[in-house]
Write a structure and sequence with these properties.
- With 703 residues, this protein is of the alpha+beta class.
- The chain is 36% helix and 24% strand.
- It has 15 helices and 25 strands.
- The strands form five sheets. Strands 19-20-17-14-22-25 form a six-stranded mixed beta sheet, with no helix packed on it.
- Helix 1 runs antiparallel to helix 2, helix 3 packs antiparallel against helix 4 and helix 9 packs antiparallel against helix 12.
- It is globular and about 100 Å long.
- 25% of the residues are buried.
């Protein structure tokens, strides 16, 4: 029999089947995209045992239930509560007779239909459904938030990374499944919630590929260690992993873009910051992949190259960190370090004196401690580029051509000592720690301590320490060591300069080289200190800055920068130094104490300020020089032990466009920390301590 009189959206087959003593009527509504016009496409009704029944359509077009109609007929009808729709109704047989088509015999069967109390049952079911949805939402929120917290913890806690990623991904998968019921609602929060889950899953997948990259790199380094690595081969081996990391990160960023957060949301700034960080990382990976061939060339795969490693002591501060006391010449070929030769800076100076036909006059303020200029004071200039060219000039005059310079600082060693623990040298009584390294090493070098009777260099103790230090470093956690080295690069404590222009640009793009750009804000200052008294007193100097800001009606800005420094050498420290000198059998204790910090701190200070400023009356001995991108004010400052000195610079910053005020204080590399106070006009002052990076301040918009 053909179903010709029902023009509605039913499933392909309507079945009345004889099952034992029951007849089951199955009627289901088709999905939206599979509707079939039954007028055009006739569908069979299969009635087992030749039982026939008449089906009548109701006034509505979509049917999802069967109810008792007039007489003994079945009427298809749409329920008012669609979520209670039954797909099956049962009919108990009461001696059904075989009837022929078109005859008027009464059909002798009854059927069971929806109970009369269905409204009450519907209400109970609705409440239960809403309660389950509420619990579902709470659990989903917990799963998503905890997953993101675990992902964020990976950046600071590298242990058990693989397990953390796996746990986060499992939680996000469960959240994804539980969140599906909410997708029937088109509310923005629902859309954002789903986007957050998908972005989290994508970030975990990226994290897994990044972790695999790290594992491969770590394994290779641990097998070879740094001096035995062929760096070009290492780079080639990790290229496929880099490609995968790049692709996964781009997919993650696309997922994150689907998340919409209102600017008024308290998490908006954090969300934007994380997006920018990921975008910056993505650009970095893309840059590496786009320039893989030139990078391979820079990794010494083709020609033999020499690099000068400069170890600087920030107990005597210089523009590029500190006094250059020791150096190492590294020769590399085909991606492998062939040799490392360590020398005292004065060993180079000896050859330099023989090669220079005329002495070079020392520059301003350096001439206060020496009448000639040489390699030991070559890092006098304000920029990395100028200092690198200056060092190259003197080193090559001494007979050592170089292709680049790697700058290391004593504070980097101290940072790594915090990770690897104390380092012992067999013939030195006290182990070196991050707390005593600066003082003890300086004392041992100054007093020319050596294991043997023959002293090749005053730096013998330093070179011996470095051998033990590198051995212990090799046995430490490569993850923690790697993180600390990356942090040192980020803060400018480690820098690399190449004398090939293109290679230098690559280093900048890879964040292995950084210098102030002076375009981060409307107002800025960059104090640069140069020790000129030949002692180690910078070890005991703490620095603080005060910035006073007042805006005129014309929008021009009157500002004062006050520079304060305190000499913290005290009786306690003096006794420590004295006891060490006595244990070493030194007789010139008081002279050594002055060298080790008790002496006055005398510094040549150059402060870089915005261009086109209008300076007030300069203080005594202050001079000014103007350049296209900045103004330079310099002066000399002396600070005695336990005393504090203060110097102020007043100027007016033109602001014809009434640009909202912003200010950057650039930190000279090596400074462990400093304190800054901001005093905005008619606003609450700001006090910040223990700052270890550049400081940014944004006042906001003018009213």
């Amino acid at each position: 029999m053909k179903l010709k009189d029902i023009v509605t959206h039913l499933e392909k087959t309507v079945s009345l089947k004889h099952l034992y003593n029951r007849i089951v009527l199955s009627i289901q509504q088709l999905e939206r995209y599979f509707l079939v016009d039954l007028v055009r496409w006739k569908k069979d009704i299969d009635i087992s045992s030749e039982r026939h029944v008449r089906l009548y359509k109701n006034a509505q077009r979509v049917f999802d239930s069967a109810i008792k109609g007039k007489g003994k007929d079945i009427v298809l009808k749409k329920l008012r509560l669609p979520f209670l729709t039954p797909s099956t109704h049962s009919f108990r047989k009461q001696g059904m007779k075989v009837v022929k088509k078109h005859k008027k015999n009464k059909k002798v069967f009854t059927f069971q239909y929806i109970p009369k109390n269905y409204i009450l049952r519907s209400a109970v079911f609705l409440l239960l459904f809403l309660f389950v949805l509420f619990l579902d939402k709470l659990f989903v929120v917990y799963l998503v938030e905890s997953s993101y917290k675990h992902l964020q913890s990976i950046s600071s806690e590298t242990q058990d990374t693989e397990h953390t990623l796996e746990k986060s991904y499992t939680r996000l998968i469960i959240a994804d499944i539980l969140f599906k019921p909410f997708l029937v609602f088109s509310h923005p929060d629902v859309i954002n919630g789903y986007a957050a889950i998908q972005a989290g899953k994508s970030l975990v997948q990226w994290g897994e590929t990044l972790y695999n990259l790290w594992v491969q790199t770590k394994t290779y380094i641990e097998q070879k260690w740094f001096e035995n690595i062929r760096y070009s081969l290492l780079f080639e081996n990790i290229l496929p992993y880099l490609q995968e990391v790049d692709e996964k990160l781009k997919a993650s960023l696309q997922s994150i873009e689907a998340i919409q957060i209102d600017k008024e949301n308290i998490n908006f700034s954090v969300f934007q910051e994380r997006k920018e960080q990921l975008s910056e990382i993505s650009h970095l990976f893309s840059y590496i992949l786009q320039n893989k061939d030139p990078i391979l060339h820079m990794l010494w795969d083709e020609t033999r190259r020499k690099y000068l490693v400069v170890f600087q002591n920030n107990d005597e501060i210089r523009p590029t960190w500190g006094f250059m006391g020791s150096m190492a010449m590294i020769e590399v070929f085909q991606g492998h370090i062939d040799s490392i030769e360590t020398k005292d800076v004065y060993a180079y100076e000896w050859n330099l004196k023989k090669s220079l036909s005329e002495k070079i006059k020392a520059p301003k303020w350096i001439d206060q401690i020496t009448d000639t200029w040489g390699l030991r004071d070559a890092n006098y200039f304000l920029t990395l580029k100028e200092n690198s060219k200056s060092i190259k000039f003197f080193v090559e005059k001494a007979g050592y051509p170089i292709d680049g310079i790697i700058y290391l600082n004593k504070s980097t060693v101290e940072s790594l000592l915090r990770i690897i623990g104390p380092v012992e040298v067999s013939w030195i009584e006290e182990a070196f720690t991050h707390e005593n390294f600066a003082r003890n090493m300086s004392l041992l070098v100054e007093t020319k301590q050596t294991k043997s009777a023959t002293l090749d260099s005053p730096k013998d103790i330093l070179f011996t320490f470095m051998e033990e230090f590198m051995t212990q470093l090799q046995e430490s956690s490569l993850t923690e060591v790697g993180k600390e080295i990356l942090r040192e690069f980020k803060n400018g404590e480690i820098q690399i300069y190449m004398f090939n222009i293109w290679e230098n640009e690559v280093l900048k793009s890879l964040h292995l080289q950084s210098e102030p750009t002076y375009n981060d804000s409307l107002d800025f200052d960059y104090p640069v200190y140069t020790s000129i008294w030949g002692n180690k007193s910078d070890r005991y100097i703490t620095r603080s800055y005060k910035k006073y800001i007042q805006t005129r009606e014309t929008c021009d800005i009157d500002t004062t920068l006050t520079i304060e420094q305190t000499h913290t050498f005290n009786k306690t420290e003096e006794e420590k130094v004295q006891n060490i000198l006595k244990s070493l059998g030194r007789e010139d204790i008081w002279t050594q104490i002055d060298i080790q910090g008790k002496g006055d701190n005398k510094s040549y200070v150059r402060v870089i300020l915005p261009p086109k400023i209008k300076l007030a009356d300069l203080g005594k001995d202050m001079t000014i020089a103007r350049y296209d991108t900045y103004t330079l004010v310099d002066f000399f400052i002396t600070t005695e032990p336990t005393q504090t000195t203060s110097t102020s610079i007043q100027y007016t910053l033109p602001n014809p466009g009434c640009t909202p005020y912003s200010y950057t204080h650039y930190k000279q590399p090596w400074l462990d920390e400093y304190t800054i106070d901001i005093f905005p006009w008619e606003e609450k002052s700001i006090h910040q301590t223990w700052i270890q990076t550049n400081y940014y301040y944004n006042q906001g918009t003018y009213k």
